[in-house]
Specification:
The protein is of the alpha+beta class. Helices cover 30% and strands 12% of the residues.
């Protein structure tokens, strides 16, 4: 898990959830408080890309990214499967 580009604190939270899943105390990995699971640019959900193409990002940065993208108005392109 050392190859993920997140802080030690976040790695600890994620590792705790993974350990709880192994012990069958939890069903899935939670997104840490203050973060959102965001899709990379060019790999948006509306183009039919899944969570494989997503990263953890601070909520403020994610909202700023949407602001600069014009809230989906700037790019109208075909999806991944079309």
């Amino acid at each position: 898990m050392a190859h993920f580009p997140v802080s030690r604190a976040l790695r600890g939270e994620i590792q705790r959830d993974i350990n709880q899943i192994k012990r069958k105390k939890r069903g899935s990995i939670r997104v840490p408080i203050g973060y959102q699971l965001t899709h990379r640019r060019g790999y948006e959900v509306r183009k039919n890309y899944g969570y494989k193409y997503s990263d953890l990002q601070i909520i403020k940065n994610h909202k700023t990214q949407h602001k600069h993208d014009g809230y989906r108005r700037k790019k109208k392109s075909k999806g991944a499967y079309t």
